[in-house]
Amino acid sequence: MASSDHQGNKDPTNTDGTPSPGTSCPVHSHAAEEAKRNGLRKALVRHRDYVKISVPEGKGNRLPSEWWKTFISLFYAILNLVLTTFMITVVHERVPPKESSPPLPDKFFDYIDRVQWAFTVTEVNGMVLVSIWSIQLLFHRYKAIVARRYFFLLGTLYMYRCVTMYVTTLPVPGMHMVCAPKLHGDSQAMLQRVLQLLSGGGLSITGSHLLCGDFLYSGHTVILTLTYLFLKEYSPRSFWWYHLLCWLTAAVGVICILVAHEHYSVDVVVAYFITTRLFYWYHTMANLQTLKCSPNNYLTHTWWNPVFNLFERNVQTHVPCSFCWPITWPPACLKNPCKKYSMVQSSREE
Amino acid sequence: MKEVRLWTASDVSDWLTDEGLQEYTDAFQDVDGPALLRLSEEDFKASPLSLVTGDSGRHLLERIKTLLLTSHMKAHKNNNNNENGHTVIALANGSVSNGKIHNGIPKNGLHPEPVRILIPQPPEQERTPYPTEWFKTGVAFLYALFCFLTTTVVISVVHERVPPKEESPPLPDKFFDLFDRVEWAFSICEINGMLLVGLWFMQWLLLKHRSIIGRRFFFIVGTLYLYRCMTMYVTTLPVPGMHFKCSPKIFGDWEAQSRRVMKMMAGGGLSITGSHSLCGDYLYSGHTVMLTLTYLFIKEYSPRRFWWYPWICWCLSAVGIFCILLAHDHYTIDVLLAYFITTRLFWWYHTMANQQALKEISTGNLFSRVWWFYPFQYFESNVRGIVPRNYQLPFLFRTVTCTRVKYSKLDSRES
Predict the structure, then answer these.
(1) More confident residue, A171 or B41
(2) Highest mean pLDDT among A329-338, B276-285, B307-316
(3) A277, B344: Cβ pair inside 8 Å?
(4) Whether the predicted pLDDT of B211 surpasses 80
(5) Does the CB of A295 have a partner CB in chain B at under 8 Å?
(6) Number of domains chain A contains
(7) In this model, does residue B37 exceed pLDDT 90?
(8) Is the pLDDT of residue B77 over 90?
(9) Range of the domain at A117
(10) Which residues of B touch A171 (CB under 8 A)?
(11) Which reactions does this protein catalyse (chain B) (predicted)?
C-alpha cells in the first residue's frame, strides 16, 4: 500500500517524497488530510490508487428460502391429488359387486367386529393433526424448505397410490360399504364426481367418500403417518409430551380405520411401510452432506433423485428447529440506505 | 574381509576408495585400522584433516560406525560357525541367556547378536478392514433358514383360508386384461430363477470376501421373506386365475400339514419340482424377490470388465418377471410391491454399510430408526469401508505355495 502511494503520488505539494512516518495505512490517513486540504479534485486523483477487490459472497445463506421451489412442489402435490381423484373414479367402475366378490378374509376382521362410528374418529384425528401441522409450519422459520419437503413427499406417495390402485382392484372390505352406482362411460357425470371428491377432500364426513375401489393402499394412513412424522421431526426435541400426544392421535386414527372395516390390514401395513421408508430416505439424504458428494450412494438410484437434487441443492445443513412470527416486521425498509460509511463510498458517489 | 582392528594403511586406503571418500586417502596415508577406529570429531578440527573435509568429517565417522557394526556381525558369524552351531537364545528383553559372550564385547552399547523381538499379532479385525468372521455369516444363514421355514408354515396356514374360486372370482387386473394367459410361461420364470441363483452361487464362491457378502445376502433375503409372511398372513387374496389347482384343505390335521411343509421346503417352492401346489401366497411374489435380489447382487459384485454379464442377468431377470405375469400366476400388484421392497431394502442396506456416518445413531441419521438397525450393526461393525470386488479361488482349489522368497540377511540366518 505504501509503495503504491509513492508511485501514484502526483501531488506537487508533497515535497519530501518519503513515506509518512509511523502509519500502518498511510494511504488512507494521508489522503484524508490531503483531501481536506486540497479539495475534491485532489481527492479524486488520490483515490485513483484504490484497487477494487471483488470478494465472493462467501458462505452466504445456508438455508435459502427459494419460494419458487416450494410452489413447484405444491403444484406437484395438487397435480397428484387430482390424478388420484381421477383414478378413483376410473377404478370405481371396475370394482366387482359385493354379491359376486365377497370381502377377502382378513385377520383383523376375524378378531374385531365392526364399530360404526370408528371411521369418524379417524377423520377427526386426521383433520386435527393436519391443522396442528399447518400452524406449526406457519411459525417455523424455514417454512419454505419444510413445506417443500412435505408437499413433495405427499405428492409422491399419492402417485404411488395411483399406480397400486389402478393395476389390481380389490373388492370392498365389508358388506356395509355403500358404493355409488356405476356410470358406464358417462364422462360428464364422472367429471362432476371428481369435483365433488376434490371439494370434500375425500372424507366421508363431508359426504364425498362414496366411491369404492381405492383400497390398496390407504390414503388416510398416509396422511396420518406423514403428518405425525413431520410434526415430530420439526418440533423441539424436549417436547416429549407433544410428540406423545401426536403419536397417540395418529395411532388411534390408524387403528380406527381397521376397526371400522374400511380398509384391509394389508392396505394399512403397506401404507405405513412406504410412508416411513420414503420419509427416512429423503431426510437422511438431505441431512447428511457427505451423502450428496459420495459416489457409492445407492440412494441416488431412485427415480425422484433429480427432483430431490433440484429442491435440496442449496440447503447446506440440517434444518434447525427454530420458530418465529410468520409476519416479520420489515426493518430494512426503515433503514436509511444512504447512510455514509466511509470516505471511499462517499467520494465514489460524488 | 578381516577385522578392522587388523587393517593396515593400505587396507584403509582401499576402503576409502570403495566408499567414495577418495579425498581422505592422501591425509590417511599413515592411518591403519585401530587409528581409524579412534578417529573423532576433534581430529577433524585440526589440520591437516580440517583442510580436506567439507563437513567436519561427519560423513566419514558415520561410515566408520557402520563398518564397525558389519565387521562385528561378520566376526561373530564366523565364530558361531566355528563353534559347532552354538546358538544363542535371545529373550524378548534382549539379554544373552547362556551368559557366554563371544569375541564381540559390546562396544558402544551394541549387542553382539541380533535379537528376536516377538510381536504379538493383533486380532483379525485390526489387521484387515474386511475381517472374515464366519460365525456372523453362520448366524445370518440361520436367520434366513428360520425365515424360509416361517414362510412355508404361513403359506400352509393361509392355504386353509383362501376362498374357493367359485365363491371369490379372480380380482380385476390391468395386465390380465391386456394379455391372455400363456401356459408355459411360468416354467420359463422358474428356469430363469434357477439359472440366476446358480450364477450367483458360483460368483459368490469366487469372491474373496465371501463371508461378508454371504452374510449380507442371507440377511436381506431373510428379512424380505419375513415381510412377505406378514403381508401374506393379514389379508388373503383370491387365486388370480381359474386355471389354478389348489390342494384340498386339511382342517386342523397337523401331521399332514407338517408333511406338506417339508415337501415344500424340499422342493424350494417351485412348481417345476411339484412343490407349488398351495395357494394364497400372492401378496407379495417370492419369485420376483429372488429374481430381483440375485440380479442386484450379481451386478453389485461382478467385475467391471465383464459389462455384458450383468446385462445378460438383467435380461434373464426381466423376462422371468414378465413371465410371472404372463402366466397369470400373480397379480400385478404383487410383482410391483416385491420389486419396490427388494430394491429399497438392498439400496438402503448397502448405503448404510458403505458410509461410516450411517452406522452410528445420530439425529441426522434417520436410517438408524429402522427395526433391523441393531442386527445390522452386529454384522457390519467391523467392516471398514466398501468391500472391494476381489476374486480368489475357494480354499480347496488353491494350490499351496511351496517356494518361499528369502528377503534379508536376518531371514536367511533363521533358515
Answers:
(1) A171
(2) B307-316
(3) yes
(4) yes
(5) no
(6) 1
(7) no
(8) no
(9) 67-313
(10) 168, 171
(11) an N-acylsphing-4-enine + a 1,2-diacyl-sn-glycero-3-phosphoethanolamine = an N-acylsphing-4-enine 1-phosphoethanolamine + a 1,2-diacyl-sn-glycerol
Q: What ipTM, to 2 d.p.?
A: 0.73
Residue A47 lies in a domain: no
pLDDT tens-digit profile of A5-24?
A: 444 444 444 444 444 443 33
Interface contact B351-A299, CB threshold 8 A: yes
With a cut of 70, say whether residue A59 has pLDDT above it: no
Out of A168, A237, A279, name the one closest to residue B332 (CB): A168
> Between vectors from CA B64 to CA B61 and to CA B70, what angle results, nearest 5°?
145
Between B253 and B176, the higher pLDDT residue: B176
Q: Which CATH architecture has domain B4-77?
A: Orthogonal Bundle (1.10)
Q: Confirm whether A54 is domain-assigned.
A: no
The 3 state secondary structure assigned to chain A is CHHHHHHCCCCCCCCCCCCCCCCCCHHHHHHHHHHHHHHHHHHHHHHCCCCCCCCCCCCCCCCCCCHHHHHHHHHHHHHHHHHHHHHHHHHHCCCCCCCCCCCCCEHHHHHCCCCCCHHHHHHHHHHHHHHHHHHHHHHECCHHHHHHHHHHHHHHHHHHHHHHHHHECCCCCCCCCCCCCCCCCCHHHHHHHHHHHHHHCCCCCCCCCCCCCCCCCCHHHHHHHHHHHHHHHCCCCCCHHHHHHHHHHHHHHHHHHHHCCCCCHHHHHHHHHHHHHHHHHHHHHHHCHHHHHCCCCHHHHCCCHHHHHHHHCCCCCCCCCCECCCCCCCHHHCCCCCCCCCHHHHHHHC
pLDDT tens-digit readout, A105-127: 888 888 988 888 888 899 999 99
pLDDT band at B195 (very low <50, low <70, confident <90, very high): very high
Higher pLDDT: B85 or B31? It is B31
Could you give the CA distance from residue B66 to residue B111 in angstroms, rounded to a whole number?
A: 14
CB-CB under 8 Å, B169 with A101: yes
Assign A33 a pLDDT band (cuts: 50, 70, 90). Answer: low
Taking residues B235-240, report their average pLDDT: 87
Check CB contact of A167 with chain B, cutoff 8 Å. yes
Min Cα distance B140 → chain A (Å) is: 23
Task: Give the minimum alpha-carbon distance from B236 to chain A in angstroms, rounded to a whole number.
Answer: 6
Q: Which of B234, B332, B354 sits opposite A266 (nearest CB)?
A: B234
- Determine, yes or no, domain membership for A283: yes
DSSP structure class, residue B173: B
Residues of B recognised as catalytic:
287, 330, 334
Domain with CATH 1.10.150.50 in chain B: 4-77
How large a percentage of chain B has pLDDT more than 70? 86
